[in-house]
Amino acid sequence: MAEAIAFDIAVRLITKLSSIALSQIGQLWNFKDDLDDLKRTIARIQAVLLDAEERSVTSNVVKVWLHELKDALYDAEDLLDDVQTEALRKDLMSGNKLTKEVRVFFSSSNQFAYGLKMGGKIKARFAFIQGQISELKLVERDLPVETPFTAKRRRQTHSFVGKEEIIGRDGDKAALLKLLLEKEFQSEENVIIVPIVGIGGLGKTALAQFVYNHERVKDHFGLRMWVCVSDVFDVKTIVANIIKSVTHQAPNQNLEMDQLQTQLRDKIDGKKYLLVLDDIWNEEGEQWFSLKKLLMGGTRGSRIIVTTRSHRVAKVTSKCQPYVLEGLSDDDAWSLFKQIAFEQRYADSTNPFFLEIGTQILERCGSLSHKDYS
Length: 374
Description:
Blueprint: H1 2-23, H2 29-47, H3 49-56, H4 60-94, H5 118-135, H6 170-181, E1 191-197, H7 204-212, H8 215-220, E2 223-230, H9 235-247, H10 257-268, E3 273-280, H11 285-295, E4 302-308, H12 311-317, E5 323-324, H13 330-341, H14 346-349, H15 352-364, H16 366-369
Parallel strand pairs: 1-4, 1-5, 2-3, 3-4
Helix pairs in contact: 1-2, 1-3, 1-4, 2-5, 3-4, 4-5, 9-10
Domain NB-ARC: 178-345
Keywords: ATP-binding, Coiled coil, Nucleotide-binding, Plant defense, Repeat
Coiled coil: 35-86
């Protein structure tokens, strides 16, 4: 539907605007002000999208407004991509830090995206679209957590990974296997929770996928389950997804929480299981403890892997020390970069021009190639 599409684009666009403002413009506050203005405008428009969706069913005027918004969001996203690409290209070619060329996003001198007037046109289009909110009497609403578009904000993960996708990490693989398979674990609880913590892009999910599919792990645990949690930590949804991971069939949507928890405990109680809860963001202990109580029926030796970017999540979910994932070594980072970036593989990776650009890009990706956290 138009509203769902527009919401997803708006979320991506606000994220990109935040990213540019924080990491690319430095001291160029005039440019930052323009970006912040656009971000606030889009956020205001985003707040009325649910009302617009409902009213578009009976109002052609609102339906047209939604289509105009969707087109404007697409154009703005394309323009931001061009700004980022061109700024990076100029920076790499010149060897200098970003200078005033990024200011051209909203100026008439923008030569590289959609012609001379696109930046100004996009500002004007969003100002017009926002101005129509009052005329159409659109009402701001909070999006309910159950809406399908909120769940799309972050990627959905799965349990499979090809061995060729994991570069380096031999020490991490061995350490995690030991945590999963070690019999003498100092804990009174049958089910041990092992948090993997690290910033985005370090490979937490890939590492969890590797150990999940390891032959020793398959032999050790009678039951293995994988659930991607992501944005919305809803206990009922997570329980239903755990059941689905066991039975390969979604439970009846009309079941109440009490019926679901009975099904869950019937599947896992008395079994030595491995459960991966991937990409947890919720830092509220109350919700976690509500879920944890339902998972403690496994036999001694059961494990739950939690992957998260947050040290607070790790502290809330487990009494154990979290496994903090560090950056790749320089050699492994370069191997990974070549695998992803060079289409011609060997030919590209020996081209001096590509080598120079690749080296500069890796230097900017400090979290990938260096053990550096903030």
